[in-house]
Design goal:
5-stranded antiparallel beta sheet
Length: 463
């Protein structure tokens, strides 16, 4: 069994613990059209696009976002941020990469689009960048968490419901081996920093986002709070989930809660119900037997009381870990996804679960074991705006030539598989997933293929 091939992949908890170039259409660096790929399970590929920077090393992919009106797809990575026409895959504009090539513990860039569709925000390392969504013109650049002089890693980005403020979450060193969670607020119009809050539980503790943290930030739609999660390690104690609620106006802490389910707990992702009443956090926890389960806890947003918690032990009763979360649009259900060891193959599968947000009752659980019967590691989760479909993506061992990017769509009500698709590049190397975004009509994934950044759009309809 091996761990994830990318920084954003979800590893089982036991392993974790022990300047502007604008252009229309495509040129020699980018291609659009039918790829050397395969789609299975009835999925219909709408288009694909590849980007090659023609510089040494891979064009590592980061996140993907779709404009609110569904007409533009935005992808980012170490060497470029690109806008595509959502219907055709034609390139609309491209901005050069602003971050070093990712690898090791460095997280790929995160991306978000403003509610009005006018602005694209990118966050990674210690910077936040804003571009005009229409033509890619740079709007502003701001630092993230750098006042301390210590290294920081931005991992997640989200807009306030009114679009006036953007929040960024990550982690950063303090001194020696210590680190804090770092959350910051910016004026979305000009990048002015409103506040930066560093969250540490005690002297000598380590707060971190592990392994990826792309879903580690959530903003209440009513503007009542910003929620951030991660993991806290206190020497001699082990690790716990750490979730904080911050006041949007000034970043002051409203509450902070730890979840201690056993020997080692890793908080990975947080979501809030549309009415702002309930906050749900997921990750993994290692019990006395030394094996990890998916662990999910829900808090009353006002009181910070834990109202339910649930653990999930997969078929192998061995190592299972959740790293991604998505809330149903009506708030009735919350979906979590991660990686779970299979009972018969001895390898990992995707695992996607649904819980009722009011009670924590498990509604369904689904697994994806690729055709090779090898390792399948989830790296992203999204729910469609109409609430009918839940999609999970990640990397999956292929039958012939390394790993593919595999995407699975489920019926949100039942967990029944609607379709699945695999993207396999042109050589014998691995395909590495980057991000996932879903509309009612399309599912878009990006990743790294044959050292190029690749984006693939699928028809979201059931097959």
């Amino acid at each position: 069994m091996h761990g994830p091939r990318i920084a954003r992949g979800v590893a089982v908890a036991a392993l974790l613990v022990v300047g502007l170039t604008a252009c229309g259409g495509s040129d020699e660096n980018g291609t659009t059209g039918p790829p050397a790929s395969s789609a299975s399970g009835g999925a219909h590929e709408l288009w694909s696009a590849r980007y090659d920077s023609r510089t040494p090393g891979p064009d590592t992919a980061g996140g993907v976002a779709i404009s609110p009106d569904g007409t533009r797809v935005f992808v980012t990575g170490a060497t470029a941020t690109i806008a595509y026409d959502a219907a055709t895959g034609e390139e609309a504009w491209r901005a050069p990469g602003e971050f070093p090539r990712t690898g090791g513990s460095t997280a790929p860039p995160a991306i978000a689009v403003s509610p009005d569709g006018d602005t694209v925000l990118i966050a990674a390392e210690a910077r936040v960048l804003a571009y005009a969504a229409e033509d890619g013109q740079p709007l502003w650049v701001a630092s993230f968490g750098s006042a301390s002089g210590h290294a920081v890693q931005a991992r997640a980005i989200a807009f306030a419901a009114d679009g006036g403020t953007v929040y960024v979450h990550g982690s950063g060193a303090t001194s020696g081996r210590d680190s804090d969670l770092v959350t910051a607020a910016y004026d979305a119009a000009d990048g002015t920093i409103g506040w930066t809050t560093r969250t540490g539980t005690s002297a000598g503790s380590q707060e971190m986002l592990w392994p990826g943290g792309s879903d580690s930030l959530a903003v209440a739609a009513d503007g009542s709070a910003v929620y951030a999660t991660g993991t806290t390690r206190v020497r001699g104690h082990g690790t716990d989930f750490l979730t904080v609620a911050l006041r949007p106006a000034d970043g002051k802490r409203i509450w902070a809660e730890r979840y201690d389910g056993g020997q080692a707990d890793l908080g990975a992702a947080v979501a809030v119900t549309p009415d702002g009443a309930r906050v749900v956090v997921t990750g993994s926890g290692v019990g006395p037997a030394g094996d990890a389960d998916m662990a999910t806890v829900a808090y009353d947003a006002a009181s910070a009381d834990a109202v339910w918690f649930a653990t999930w032990d997969g078929l192998a009763h061995h190592n299972d870990g959740a790293g991604f979360i998505a809330m149903a649009p009506d708030g009735s259900a919350v979906f979590v996804a991660g990686t779970s060891e299979g009972a018969t193959t001895g390898h990992e599968d995707y695992a996607t679960l649904a819980y009722a947000t009011d009670s924590g009752q498990q509604l369904w659980a689904a697994r994806y074991d690729g055709p090779a019967g090898g390792d399948d590691n989830a790296s992203g989760l999204a729910v469609s705006p109409d609430g009918s479909r839940v999609c999970t993506t990640g990397w999956s061992d292929g039958t012939a030539d390394g790993a593919d990017i595999a995407t699975v769509a489920y019926a949100a009500a039942s967990g029944a598989t609607s379709w699945e698709a695999r993207y396999d590049g042109t050589d014998e190397g691995d395909e590495e997933p980057g991000g996932l975004a879903v509309t009612d009509d399309a599912v878009v994934v990006n990743g790294t293929s044959d050292e190029d950044m690749v984006t693939v759009a699928y028809d979201a309809a059931d097959r």
